[in-house]
Amino acid sequence: MNSTICIEQKFSLNELTGNTISECRFINCDFSHADLTDTVFKNCHFYDDESQTGCDFTHSVLKEARFIGCDLSLCNFRYADAFGIEIRECRAQGADFRSASFMNKITERVWFCSAFIIKSNLSYTNFSKAVLEKCELWENRWTAENVLGASFIGSDLSGGEFNEFDWRSANFTFCDLTGAALGNLTIRDTELDGVKLDMNQAGQLLMDLGIILQG
């Protein structure tokens, strides 16, 4: 499927599974419950400027799905199975990932996560209570993100831009934050156990405590 405009279309369960779709515009389309495993979307638009709405991906299967250079603003991904999803160089402003799953459960107590969300604008996106542990999440814009109760343990958040961001609301232990613009992150009220920082970042955090490093 290439260079197509789809308006208020409901996609059936396996209609797009494994396909590569380029330069398409989806206006108020319904992907809910669709199996989009291994589906690739390149330079597609899922946000409609006129109605200011995104598309519906609730309960969809997005295992190993790839969104490259797409506009996913205000799209609804609630309850989606997003293990192994790739979102690269996209706009996802205001998208809703609450209750989306990025994990593969082996047992109730044994599981692992996989997601590649890279070089994307995630401003105002909702990742409340999301579990994105040991995932590739680098060079994203995280302005005013809702991450209340989320877990990013061990993930690569390097090179990110964090503005109006509440570091206290989620777990960032053992994350790689090197090269990131950390905004209002402070040592006083944020758990930084195992976090990777570069020397400039560490120096700034210590200066906030009144400690000055000598070279």
The fraction of residues assigned to DSSP E strands is 15-25%
Order of helices and strands: EEEEEEEEEEEH
Tell the overall outline. globular
The count of helical stretches stands at 1
Helix content, binned percent:
under 10%
Q: Largest sheet at a glance?
A: 5 strands, parallel
Give the termini separation: 58 Å
Averaging pLDDT over every residue, what do you get? 93
Strand line-up of the largest beta sheet: 2-4-7-8-11
Query: Which stretches are low in confidence, meaning pLDDT under 50 for 5 or more residues running?
Result: none
The computed structural class is mainly beta
Count of strand segments: 11
Calculate Rg over CA atoms.
Answer: 18 Å
Q: How would you describe the overall organization of this protein?
A:
The chain is mostly beta strands and 215 residues long. It has 1 helix and 11 strands, in the order E-E-E-E-E-E-E-E-E-E-E-H. It has one helix at 199-207, and strands at residues 5-7, 20-22, 25-27, 40-42, 47-48, 53-54, 66-68, 85-88, 103-105, 111-113, 115-118. Strands 2-4-7-8-11 form a 5-stranded parallel β-sheet, with no helix packed on it. A two-stranded parallel ribbon has the order 1-3. Strand 9 and strand 10 form a beta hairpin. The mean pLDDT is 93. InterPro entries: 5peptide_repeat (IPR001646), Pentapeptide-BTB/POZ_domain (IPR051082). It comes from Symbiopectobacterium purcellii. Pfam families: Pentapeptide. This is Qnr family pentapeptide repeat protein.
Summarize the structure.
The protein has 215 residues and is mainly β. The chain is 4% helix and 15% strand. InterPro entries: 5peptide_repeat, Pentapeptide-BTB/POZ_domain.
